[in-house]
What does this fold into?
Amino acid sequence: MAQGKAGDYRILHEAALRDYLAGLPDIAALLGAEPVSWSITEVGDGNLNLVFIVKGDRGGIAVKQALPYVRLVGESWPLPLSRAHYEYLALSRQAQLAPGLVPTLLHHNETLALTVMELLEPHIIMRKGLVAGTQYPRFVDDITTFMARTLFFTSDLALSAAEKKEAIAAFAGNHALCKITEDLIFTDPYRIAVQNRWTVPYLNQFAASLRGDMNLHVAVSRLKLKFMASPEALIHGDLHTGSIMVTDDQTRVIDPEFAFYGPMGFDVGAVIANLLMAYFASAGHERSPDERRAFEAWVLGTVEQVWNEFARKFLDLWRADARGDAYPATLFAGETGSARLEAERKAYMQRLFGDAVGFAGAKINRRIFGLAHNIDFELVEDPRKRAVSEARSVGLARALMVDTAEFPDIASVTTAARELRTWMPEFATG
Ligand code: ADP
Ligand code: MG
It folds into this structure.
């Protein structure tokens, strides 16, 4: 890891980046030939940072540099460069725990808030593939391995109490990024906020009811508190389908700059929510009725398997690798003890499922009423059609958040989604 004097930060645009990389022998060797011949393209389509793809005649790399402000908004919204440090730290840990499921780290410079990593090619952002109606057969196995292993091995089930608290401390400074989540996901969509937007005029009534619905305000506030006050494990913190790059047979999780010790259900709920939005958005992308029926069935099947496989893998790890200080083995000795512990594991997963369901609802609402929207809906050009997909999503989101207990298993979630798929809001029929 390269260090420099604090204050030496500068934004490396093309020429400066070329010089910088030319000064790193391993990276220069990987790219090959003369630095002048390297192609450098800025591809950052994200909300926060610069991302460059650099290619030489031997190979390519991706370079990510944090800016001292939120890219989507500009210099008026400052954001600490230290997020690059936390992203690097999280990526390193994820690479150990879930090898092959994150891009390989090649170089990191703390002062420049810059990370060089493996170029993912021909991978595309999964969200784009879902908009196009592409099915990803490897996805369930890969994402559930990623979540089960990164969450289990950073939890009190696997770590000693001392290791766990040191690990919490190592990420505690990433609070500015947590605050973005706390504001943009758990607060702003439920009040008047300048950054909010939604599909007008169709969703005006829906936006107003989000602001007036006290049951929803209680639900989202409970979720917010859970997010703030539950350092269960090292979570990715932004695990949507725009943070996953895929090919037909590979899955890579990128962009863990929101990582911190938080509630596991937030990551699981993020994956489920984004699949559910891909499902509801699909109707807006079809050129003829039911054209995407097979894709939509695959998406809902994937939602079910994401939870079921995650739970199975997490439980298997718990049964095999419980070296942490939680649930001391001495308290669960003998046949009675192991039966009680197994029942307790199931109860734990049931609570985690409820968390994931609630967080999934909150993740849906923020994409429809908050600052950051997603292309699943945005690329539906006809606003009325888009609003229909969004309104169905919002109907499910409210139920997931307020009536969480009515979803005892993942099949009840997909059943509710399937029922809403044919629901026509008044603005669509009137
Ligand atoms: P941000 O934090 O600003 O959202 P991301 O880490 O999500 O930035 O990266 C933005 C975009 O850059 C991604 O959507 C993807 O298209 C591209 N990208 C990021 N990392 C890589 C990589 N390792 N290989 C190829 N493309 C990448
Ligand atoms: Mg991103």
Remarks:
- The chain has two domains: 14-118, 124-429.
- The CA atoms of residues 245 and 251 lie 6 Å apart.
